[in-house]
Write a structure and sequence with these properties.
By secondary structure, the protein is an alpha+beta fold. The chain has a 3-stranded antiparallel β-sheet with strand order 1-2-3. It contains 2 helices and 3 strands.
Amino acid sequence: MAYLTRPLIGQSEDWRLVSWPHPDYALMLWCGRLPVLDYAGGILISRKKTDKEMPESVTQEFKSVLAQHGMDWEKTCPSNNDHCPF
């Protein structure tokens, strides 16, 4: 098992809150490094379980911020947490 964890030795991640245009929605981006690769991504944080109620102004803000960081909103993967009990 030690062989499987070796690529994680030296792992580091930087997380940044890049936009919080509404009390219910925020956007975070991260970049990370492992000895074997660099990686990056983002996450939309919300008090809501889906993006169904997200105001269009928030969507436009997130599209703009992602574009500033070389990312395309249309290529993101939405998730649905309606199944969560809380």
